[in-house]
Amino acid sequence: MVSINDINHTILAGNFTNEQLNSIGMAVQFARNQLSRKTKASLRLGDNVNFYSSKMGRDYTGEVIKIARKYVTVRSPGNGLWRVPANMLTVV
Question: What ranges in 1-92 are assigned the alpha helix state H?
Fold first, then answer.
């Protein structure tokens, strides 16, 4: 398997056309969508999950109260409700 460093180095050092770079971007987006679907499929209402908020600079833990198409609503005790993309969640 190729390491992430090898992939990054190849992209940065390569002489790719705009079309090739768009293709790479679409592949990354597809992989993100697959990860999100897989994560959402493993979640159930009431599950405890953990996520990191880059805006607040800390980790939060809470309970899944709603699973929507794009976001999962998490109730964090003392921190309110959060709408979080599924791919940012890990089950505790």
Answer: 4-13, 18-42
Specify whether the CB–CB gap between 62 and 77 falls below 8 A: yes
What's the maximum distance between 2 C-alpha atoms anywhere in the chain? 50
Backbone angles phi, psi at 57, to 5 degrees: 75, 30
Side by side, the strands of the sheet bearing 58-67 are 80-85, 71-76, 58-67, 48-53, 90-91
pLDDT tens series, the chain, 92 aa: 889 999 999 899 988 999 999 999 999 999 999 988 999 999 999 999 999 999 889 999 999 999 998 899 999 999 999 999 998 999 99
**8 Å CB contact between 66 and 84:** no
Q: What share of the chain is helix, strand, coil (3-state, %, to 5)?
A: 40, 35, 25
> Rounded to two decimals, what is the model's pTM?
0.74
